[in-house]
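Record format v2
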Amino acid sequence: MIATKNLVTLFTETRSKTEQLCKPLEIEDYVVQPIVDVSPPKWHLGHTTWFFEEFILKHHKPNYKLFHPDFAFAFNSYYESIGKRVVRTDRGNMSRPGVAQVYDYRHYVTNELKDFLETIDISKEIEHLLLMGIHHEKQHQELLMTDIKYILGNNSFQPKYDDHFIESTTEKEKFKWISMGEGIYEIGHTNLEEFHYDNEIGRHKVYLHKYEIANKLVTNAEYLEFIKAGIYNDFNYWHAEAWEWLKETGISQPMYWHKIDENWHHYTLNGLKPLTMDSPVKHISYFEAFAYAQWKGCRLPTEFEWEASQNNFKWGQRWEWTESAYLPYPGYKKAPGAIGEYNGKFMVNQKVLRGASVVTASKHTRPTYRNFFHTNLRWQYTGIRLAK
Amino acid sequence: MIATKNLVTLFTETRSKTEQLCKPLEIEDYVVQPIVDVSPPKWHLGHTTWFFEEFILKHHKPNYKLFHPDFAFAFNSYYESIGKRVVRTDRGNMSRPGVAQVYDYRHYVTNELKDFLETIDISKEIEHLLLMGIHHEKQHQELLMTDIKYILGNNSFQPKYDDHFIESTTEKEKFKWISMGEGIYEIGHTNLEEFHYDNEIGRHKVYLHKYEIANKLVTNAEYLEFIKAGIYNDFNYWHAEAWEWLKETGISQPMYWHKIDENWHHYTLNGLKPLTMDSPVKHISYFEAFAYAQWKGCRLPTEFEWEASQNNFKWGQRWEWTESAYLPYPGYKKAPGAIGEYNGKFMVNQKVLRGASVVTASKHTRPTYRNFFHTNLRWQYTGIRLAK
Amino acid sequence: MIATKNLVTLFTETRSKTEQLCKPLEIEDYVVQPIVDVSPPKWHLGHTTWFFEEFILKHHKPNYKLFHPDFAFAFNSYYESIGKRVVRTDRGNMSRPGVAQVYDYRHYVTNELKDFLETIDISKEIEHLLLMGIHHEKQHQELLMTDIKYILGNNSFQPKYDDHFIESTTEKEKFKWISMGEGIYEIGHTNLEEFHYDNEIGRHKVYLHKYEIANKLVTNAEYLEFIKAGIYNDFNYWHAEAWEWLKETGISQPMYWHKIDENWHHYTLNGLKPLTMDSPVKHISYFEAFAYAQWKGCRLPTEFEWEASQNNFKWGQRWEWTESAYLPYPGYKKAPGAIGEYNGKFMVNQKVLRGASVVTASKHTRPTYRNFFHTNLRWQYTGIRLAK
Amino acid sequence: MIATKNLVTLFTETRSKTEQLCKPLEIEDYVVQPIVDVSPPKWHLGHTTWFFEEFILKHHKPNYKLFHPDFAFAFNSYYESIGKRVVRTDRGNMSRPGVAQVYDYRHYVTNELKDFLETIDISKEIEHLLLMGIHHEKQHQELLMTDIKYILGNNSFQPKYDDHFIESTTEKEKFKWISMGEGIYEIGHTNLEEFHYDNEIGRHKVYLHKYEIANKLVTNAEYLEFIKAGIYNDFNYWHAEAWEWLKETGISQPMYWHKIDENWHHYTLNGLKPLTMDSPVKHISYFEAFAYAQWKGCRLPTEFEWEASQNNFKWGQRWEWTESAYLPYPGYKKAPGAIGEYNGKFMVNQKVLRGASVVTASKHTRPTYRNFFHTNLRWQYTGIRLAK
């Protein structure tokens, strides 16, 4: 269990970190929503704040006065239990509340919550909700960064976020296959004292057959071979649904790649740069990860294979697509009420990603962490680790 | 012909008026595009500036240096002749160039053009282009106001634009029919020295049969009767296409009307207010105007009937839907080049509106002015004058 | 007024003609609806029958027994007044009632109506409804032919309808412009004893300026020049809406044209044939007719110009697109009840076509007849006559 | 291995069975495609025939003459390797080839193949292709029945297929939970001599935790309780994606259910009948199966749980939705060439169903058989078996 003081520190640090991530933005950047998946930064700032107000202050702090009666409508995301909300596709149409007012809202709620925490003995329930809110905000810190990248990277002026952000590190090890033996493995979160989500508990046994898994991620150079081999035009390597998707979208390279006068570039948070060949490929869909693996005569690991072997390789630069569908672990029950809407209701037609990325918040991942996205999405820092 | 000095004054006043209209906005309001027809105010500011840069400075001012090489891409609207441009639906996804930079762009072009005009003898061609640019900007002043109203009025917080804006004046006259005799009338612009668009020249004769036209516009109170009579649910009064449109959109009242606790309100630029019963109805589509007229056993006037009789009534509060399709006058030829894209290419599947509205720029209308919109659009200040 | 005997003859001949048109069909051809505008032949057979049952027999024949209580649901087209009906897009999904049963329905209603007519003194009202039904069926005879052509011509096997159908005749006259003087012309139907639709009455004066109109239609050879000149790729000649339509659909030639090994062919009711160069172009949209005229430095005539000059040229091979929007004539009132749904509710966003085509039923057109279609439609036998 | 004689018998019986299933149809019923998932019966007849022609006769029978050079275009389903084909949504727009010609095609290919088989020693390869073709046709026999049901059951006349078809049998056993112990189970096809698909081989171990599985299927009466409890309107029991789907489609009951004067009916192949309360519910989506299980405080079994326990209960009336996503078994490799397009390319975003239904062809299922459909589909005979 975490001491109160540490908990308050964790809370204030998280709150302040989110705001720090937005420092390089112009006010205009806070407002836009170029595609439905990308929320305006202003909305992330408000939504993470609303979570603390709605689930803690409103119900637990005596005489708490809402910052504004209509902000729940503006900043609820998808909690059906909580009532009406701005349609998701409309987030980018709301010029008000303005950025300054959203910051006021943040500071008001941060202070109210600090006050509250300092005056009470933190109960198990409050601690749980608080940690939930903190990790919810950390999760949004990652989305904030990928959404900012999308907003700037899809602007025809290709403005940079800053000069120093490092999106990739070269993995220096030589490629090798790690061999894993057949047998029963235990999967799922164990240390129940530590923070975790409901989708990763239910520690349970799985039987794995002999497999091999790569010690490092597929690089840009390797992915370029895949492009040059013409695989984007060869249906043999793609799922039927992926092939339709390619024809509809015209996609033929990772998101943010640009070929300029025969030289490959990619947009990064530091602006448009020549493609770095030895860094791990990023911003690809599951469909592309799968096709790449097919073409190499390999496959993607399952999430169980990944978890069972993850001690043997470095990870953390990219969210790694697995072959596993996002499904409940044995014995999974969703929590009652709105908090229960967090994970369970998305357990269909999505794929699990394991690991973490360069924009994952500190302490917001672990070997049992289950991230999940639809098979066509690319704006996250996603990558490929092969298995066979 | 206009003296140079007057022309420069007209130019600088127009430029400054546009900026004055934006004074009450927050930076965030400049950015959003809630529906495809509504452009971000920032875009209007840039686009009207680009017009002067593209059509005058770039081609006529010696050694003119573009403010930014990519701004043409960002601020071209629909001129196919000029090259690529941001897709219309993407205008609200562009956070950059920011508002401050757009104002810099404006001031740069305004000054460059003033300099240019002061150093030359203004040729007929330059005068024509300049007047074109000025009236183009005046036209965008009206769109700017209707777009601002849409942005604020569709925000769930219903923020006001300012406290003083007057959208409606009561027409004090008693209703009466004005009778017009059968015969030949002359239609179209006459004073070719005065500024005009190419769609209104070609003064020509039309034969009109006896008709009567209302001396005043349909009021909110009268339109409310139409609603109460259940006509939004009675197909008999609607075009087949209108009936489909009603079923798809669920529309059952003018845009910006809200029924709150059994009392009708409307959003105005001064905020949400009780509906003023005796002001002219506004923000209705052609479909609704037509159905209203049908229900009253009347019809809408043609644009020729309107023009022939307009001396006999007051107009200027609302753009008045006519029964006329937007078509070329006899002898109409579109101008060569990009300037020719202004009017002719829209002459299909739209309706003519006559008059002016409370947000029409000063001196930007006249009895022969032909405005035009698609039959389902409502975000302009549109109204109804009956005929029979 | 028409003698009873003649009326009965006209009725039975019309009924029998419709069935004769379907003779070459296989049962399968009666069922399909490849696009929403094209109805299954079976539906035309049923719908024209339902019209007589619904508007005459049901209300006027004592003790008339409906053929089947649910056929009104299956065969109503768009009459909101009459009640629910199969959604238009679903017509091709209804395998029942089968073709044989639809013919039974036809014969039942034909016989019942003949019986009825023979036992009564035909009142003015019945005569009007009967003529309405007959002309309604004649109109559907034309649609039947164009729908059959679409069904067969869009089948990859390109089956022929028969061997003898003549779609085009060469217009032997040398091209010349017919000059028409300025002045007042009378427009609209005159002989009110003769059958006519409500949209063509209201004989009225229009003032026409001097114009010239072509004595013959644009030929395939001439249209081919337009294609070769690359005008399908040059936005300058197209309406903005037309340009969008071209980009969406990829259209670059008239419907039914195919380029096979560098030689142009067209699908006709006799099967796929080499393009006949001197026959009038057909199956083009208003958008294309307009662009062609622009490219020739001409324009399309208005419907008034067409009517005023039609005595001076041959017409009847193609429906000729005019520049006129489909609007009510002065004094137009739609009839009360379902019959009134026939014309008025379509008077928006469509264009008038004048003349007739090779598949127009005998005696189903006249100089004042106003046909109308949306600007993008091409499956009718449409053509181009130039004016200037 | 199967003796040649038996193989030829199996082939001819299968061919003849397909035609027998179509006996009750009118010609019109063969043609229509009311939704994209439902193919015209005529297409099933042709497509199953094309499979034998394309994969056996064309490549293996000396001097084989194609029945028609364009039939491959008409009857290929989704084999990208084989070349162009009629777009899936267009199958219902093709009136030709007609039903009689498709039967000619069937008989030609059946006879050519019988001739061929009688003159050769059947190699392993031919045997494999032949069995593939036979089972492919058996699979289409099931689709044929569900498509016929859809075509007739969505026709407003609700015609029956025949009088004798039995869609449901009451499961007489009392409900009980079957308990299964924790441990390693072997999953996948074993008898490689027997026909099987590539998706079910790769016999492998899985570790299952203790679970209980129902001995019988959920009944109509039980499902009615779910409806009466208002669960179709309570988001708590649904996946987020399912909730969107409910709102879009307005679905609130199984496919083919109709409430008439307060009494529940369902359309069956014998026509519209009062709902039989004790038969197993059918025509529900995975979304509904999942929500039902949630509401009962249970869950759906995984496909492994189902296979491990299937000896302990009767199955075969309904395809039973499982919680398992359709994924490759360990070591799965898709076959090279067109045959490899059969299964692997669909292994994403679908759910596994186990068991069989009342319209599954004889000998076309087994305990290891893996059926799969998208989560929203309902036109198959699908049902629910609970687990916990």
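The two ends of chain D are 41 Å apart (CA to CA).
Chain D has a mean pLDDT of 94.
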